[in-house]
Amino acid sequence: MASQQTAIQNGRTATRVSSWRKTDTMWMLGLYGTAIGAGVLFLPINAGIGGLIPLIIMALLAFPMTYYAHRGLCRFVLSGSKPGEDITEVVEEHFGAGAGKVITLLYFFAIYPILLVYSVAITNTVESFLTHQLHMQAPPRALLALLLIVGLMMIVRFGKEAIVKTMSMLVFPFVAVLMLLALWLIPNWSTAIFQHASLSGSGSSLGMTLWLALPVMVFSFNHSPIISAFAVAKRQEYGEEAEAKCSRILALSHMMMVLTVMFFVFSCVLSLSPANLAEAKAQNISILSYLANHFNTPMMAWMAPIVAIVAITKSFLGHYLGAREGFNGLIIKSLRSRGKSMDEKKLNRFTALFMLLTTWLVATWNPSILGMIETLGGPIIAVLLFLMPMYAINKVPAMRRYSGALSNIFVTLIGLISISAIIFSLLG
Question: What keywords appear on the UniProt entry (predicted)?
Fold first, then answer.
């Protein structure tokens, strides 16, 4: 009788995990929306500059590299003993209050600077679009930045579900335009890249190209800021079956990412020569801007800023969830150490005000150091996304069941290689 009940229970569990809900689709697209942002518009330049062989190797690594790392982080968030615990609370539970504060601080500083980058990027892109494409007089920068950020914050105000819903809606036009652009470039494909396809005598240069290009690949597909919110939401919805459901959603989301992005990357790279890609890198512009100048077509001149605006909007919203989580975690831990607490709604309002003021001030100021800030955030993201969950698998009893898998070694190696490459780039 007991075995019959167990079989029935297992059958129900399998049905719940295998069934697909509207919320699962929404989150799948939301994850895609956070990952596929402005970074993808620079990926063809960085990935294709070394020739065809490194590009093919990176295309093969793309899915396992991103899927296993984000699945590890998701499992880490789900390993908390209490439902509703976000990453900052789970870290404290597993590693203690001191380590919890340090990792929460790192988590915040890995994501918050990127949010500032996007606030500047959206202001610059819209300002350029108004001036060059619409031939209008752009409003004063301070006013334009305020209007744009208030607009984004209005979406934020409706809560997590509204953010994910908006991002999942923006995915469709973004993917459609990206794929149309990739198809439009097909008549311009050439064999120039195949001249750099030789492996003879190029072992060291191939290794160096892959080593330096790996972090670009990692962060072009990075959506760690939304993983904690995703895991919490799915745990509330599916309970004990959340891990299996999250893994399935992540797998489908990553397949969609890799197929669409790598098709776009290959189409761009086949349309240009390695010398063109080197020129684009030297000019420090996105692939869309370079293609618009290179082919000198009105369609590209209009499409480039529209795609960029949609990409930046999606990424801003996804990174906002992570930045808010980190900032809230810092305040909660600071108040807790003094025996105090704050109402969640009041805390979210305070965080929203802080984010609004700081992103607006930075967007108005328009500093030129933002690329460096994003690069400095890179090693922290690599530690949190690749190394921390793998360390937890060996140290935390709740995660011990995931030990022994080859994917753990693979994720650890990718994390270490990425960190070493970023440090080398900074020192160089």
Answer: Amino-acid transport, Cell inner membrane, Cell membrane, Membrane, Symport, Transmembrane, Transmembrane helix, Transport
